[in-house]
Every structure is written in C-alpha cells, then in structure tokens.
C-alpha cells in the first residue's frame, strides 16, 4: 500500500514528499485512502472538518476502536510519517478479514486532515477542529504563503467552511484511539537506551508528548536599494534575524531544550533590496514546560504565540493494556513530536501510540526509514490489539 503512494507528491530534487493539505496531491492521497477502504469493504465518509473515516462493522453496539494517523507531509518529508499508521491499520483489518474475524464493536480507520500544518502554519487542524481545541473562525482565517485562506482551500475541494467545528457526537462515539507511527529521533527509553534501535526492539510505546509551541517574530527595518544605501545608514532587519537565530540556539542548548528557527519570510525578498520586514518562526519543545517557556521569554524580542500544547500524557491503562497484548516488555519513551493522538488525548479520549523503530532516527526528511520486517511487526501488533479489544 505504501508503494502505491511512492510517487504521489514526490519532490524530484530532494526525493522527499510535498503533500500539503487541500492541494491536488492531497486529493490523490485521499483517493488512495478511499481505494484501500473499498478493497476491504469498509464504509468511507468525510466528516464536517475534512477528516477521512473508514468503518468496519459501524452498526455494532458499543464505542468505536479507532486506528489511524494522517497523510499530509512537511516540505520534502519522509515516506512513513503518517501514511505508515494508516496503511498498517488497513493491513491489520485485511488480515483479520481473511481469517474470518468479526469485530464485536465498531472499528474505524481515520486519516486526520492537515496534521503537519505545513501549508497554513498550525499543526493538527483536522483533529483540533473535531475536538473543539481550535475555533472555526481562527482556523478559517489561516493563510498560506500565497495568501490563500484555509476557507478558500477547503471550499475548492468541496468542504463547506460553514460546517467546520467541534463534532461532539462523533467524539462521543470514540472509545479509544491507537496511533501507530514511525519513531522520530532516538529519545531515551525507560531503560535509558537512546531509541528503539539501542533498546533492541522493533516497537515501542509512547508515554507522553513533550510540551511544544510555535512563535512568530516580526523584525521591522527600512526597505531601500542595496546598491545605493551606505552600510552605515541601513536599517536591515536581517541583522536582527541573524542575532535571533543564534540566540535561540544558544539559549536552547543552555536550557537543555530543543528550539529551531525553521521558517523565514523576507519582504520584499529581492536580492538587490535591503528588506523592510523579516518574519521568523520559532519551534520550541522539551521535557519540561517551564524551561521551554522561560527560554522563549528570554529572547528579548516581541513574539506572537501561534500555538502551544502542554505536556500530553497518554492513557496509562490503555497503554498498559496494549503493552500486555504485545508481550509486556515493550520499551516506553516520550515523543518529542506532536501528533493527532495527543489532541485526541487532551479531549479526554483514552489514547495510546505505538512507535515503529527508525534506524536512522531521521524524520521530516527523505532519509526517514522503517524496515519492512519492523513494519510487519507493527501490523501484527495492531492485529493482536483488534483481536484483544474487539472480540
């Protein structure tokens, strides 16, 4: 199934994938989801916020066990971040169907919309809208680099902007959510190993998501001609940007957190013009909320907080139950990356995350990897969980 996506949105220069929300490439990914579901006889629907759902035994009594992830990517992203969780869920269901298994409760596979936030700047928009953790007005006003609003982008593909918002009835149907995801980085496990590879395990369980946020700095200057303005007379905001980038790095290292200036917008963006305005976006996260916030506060520039999520623990009972199904000795480790599972957990729904070993530790890049045998073990894990929790 992943091979079927191998050329969808591929960046010919980097070899990674550009799968941004509400684009033609995103539509191709969504069609792939529908085809996978149809091959298994699952009923597909798109909810009011653009999230895709495929249902198995939807009319059964009881709350739904939901599996899945997302299909969008960061610029030049990897092949596994998101699609691995969706494909693995479909594969597990296919195996069980061939074995004649009949679930006693509704099962759903979900592909949440715009998880990465690569186009509009806010992550997990689909799950945040579903749970009500972002307002429709705030979401619809988001703009991409071309000035297209989220409202315009969604309307273009047939999603009615007026329908967006918290879906309490759908949330009430979800009994638990389990997201399988490729390991990102090599964070310390509960035994002290640096990642799943060092722990000698193909699979791990996430205990929590680190607190994380995004901030924007707007540094103003005076636009002028690069060939006629004396150096001493320039008010160049790029100098302020350079200082900010270095300050972010130095303070993050001193505080023991992670912080990145990963996106910059320069106006007017001409080679022969001194810029008039530079906007820079800072991503900061770590294992201690107070140190993340203190580091950002010490930067000494005016910042606009565009998003913030506190430490998000995953459900201890569900995680322990999944661990038991998997043999009771799966390494546990935190996630430095945000996920839809975290948004669902903050909405009060029991959620857990299974991580599949990544030998490189690299993610959000073309070198992201997961070995076929490890992916097969991830599918087997979901298959066992479905048997255990839906018999």
From TrEMBL:
Alphabetic keyword roster: Hydrolase, Metal-binding, Zinc
One term of GO molecular function: hydrolase activity, acting on carbon-nitrogen (but not peptide) bonds, in linear amidines
Binding site for allantoate: 214, 272, 285
Family matches, as InterPro entries: Amidase_Cbmase, Bact_exopeptidase_dim_dom, Peptidase_M20
Keyword Metal-binding: yes
Source species, domain of life: Bacteria
Binding annotation for Zn(2+) 1: 70, 81, 181
Family: Belongs to the peptidase M20 family.
Name listed for the protein in its UniProt record: Allantoate amidohydrolase
Organism per entry: Amnibacterium flavum
